[in-house]
Amino acid sequence: MDNFQLLTVEQAYKLWQTDNSIVVDIRDRQSFHSAHITGAYHLTNETLNNFITQTDLDTAVMVICYHGHSSQGAAQYLVNTGFETVYSINGGFEVWSREYPHTINSLS
Q1: Does 107 score more than 90 pLDDT?
Q2: For residue 21, what pLDDT is reported?
Q3: Nearest to 42 by CA among 52, 29, 55, 53
Q4: Active site: which residues (predicted)?
Q5: Among 8, 22, 25, 57, which one is most buried in terms of CB atoms within 10 A?
């Protein structure tokens, strides 16, 4: 794959339910810690190298941000580093948390 692909939250949710993918959340630390998708990896500048070295390049990676814009740049970066299947989730965490609140780990 030369470029990432866009997924709707519905498509991403279906893929998330399988064991064939990982969600990476690129939102800021405070937002991630207050609420995130169960099992999501918090991808930051500090965790990027570990993620790249510890994750199989053939793992499907779904990138999520607040609204689905910043995740596109991060998704393309992961493609450029060698990941074979990378998606950006349209609508981001805002839409996901509204549509699938039962999947969210939250401090509240």
Answers
A1: no
A2: 95
A3: 29
A4: 65
A5: 25
38 in helix, strand or coil? coil
Identify which of 73, 54, 55 has the alpha carbon closest to the alpha carbon of residue 64: 73
pLDDT in tens, 78-93: 999 999 999 999 999 9
Identify the CA nearest to 67 among candidates 42, 90, 35: 90
Is residue 91 within 8 A of residue 54, CB to CB? The reply is: no
Among 10, 35, 46, 37, which Cα is nearest to 107's?
35
Residues recognised as catalytic: 65
Token pair 């999520």 is at which residue? 64
The model's pTM: 0.95
- For the chain, domains (ranges, CATH) are 5-103 (3.40.250.10)
For residues 88 and 4, the answer to whether their CB atoms sit within 8 Å is yes
Quote the crossing angle between the two packed helices 9-16 and 92-99, to the nearest 10°: 70
